[in-house]
Fold Cytochrome c oxidase subunit 2.
Amino acid sequence: MLRPQGPAAESSFDLMKLSITIMIVVLLIVFSIAAYVLVRFRRKPDQREMPEQVEGSFKLEVLWTVIPLILVVVLAVPTVKAVFAAGNDHSNDKNAIKVKVTGHQYWWEFQYTDYGVTTAQDLVIPAGKDIAFELSTKDVLHSFWVPSLSGKMDTNPDGTTNRFSFSAPNEGVYRGKCAELCGPSHGFMEFKVKSVSEAEFEKWVNSMKSPAVLPEDPALAEKFKSQCLTCHAMGDMPDMSSAPNLTGIGSRESVAGILLNDDTGVDGAPVLENLKTWLHDTQGVKPGNKMPDPKKDMNLSDEEIDGIAEFLAGYTLD
Ligand SMILES: [Cu+2]
């Protein structure tokens, strides 16, 4: 929030600076007057009599009503302007990229309706373009929030949808959060916004559409199909919206949104390691999440789990 990376976040940051500046100025003036009065009018050692009692001053009362009024107006005008600008809707804008965001306990689904592409956890967008969001939830109330790009927007459990939009002028990866307590793994319900060049975005869309692949070992492929693809979709398979789409999972910024993929190991772990961590202990990583345990509930052996992890780590987009 304090390092805004786009116009929507900048307007919130400007409001914060304006209100904090006004607060500091008021604080300094009030405290200076209070300090002056304390020193100037304190009781002298030999003073015994009651000081003169002053009541009611028309001038002062007008002064301390009008000044706050002016300050409130100074705050209100840009705030109302920014609030209406933040609620802008680009859903009918031909140049905007439309993304349907669905909150799930505890992951984010992103559907690119104009491209027929669905992904999870990584929201890939072309830098500088307006992204028109339509937000809803599959279960409870969540709130979609990318602090460095924009304010929050709720996903309502009553079936209504919310719309808003933002853009990310600079290429980069921005961290997103669920900002509404939604269950035991709410704190791990993270996602990333990946702002890339227009050419890279087109390339990403095309590779997301390439046909699904399976593990080479036929026995493992069979297990994967029967145990995992009942919930998860990949490549050109129809997406049931019941679990994160796994297309190109090896190229993602994270596993399950929270285990950061980092080959240098400085800020996370390599993707293969994260996939193993996830598949061997999903409840340990995200307590209360809705994926069955591969070992206990799907009867997979450690070798099979590691084999699937290796296959998924190698399932990259190019
Ligand atoms: Cu949440």
Remarks:
- The mean pLDDT is 93.
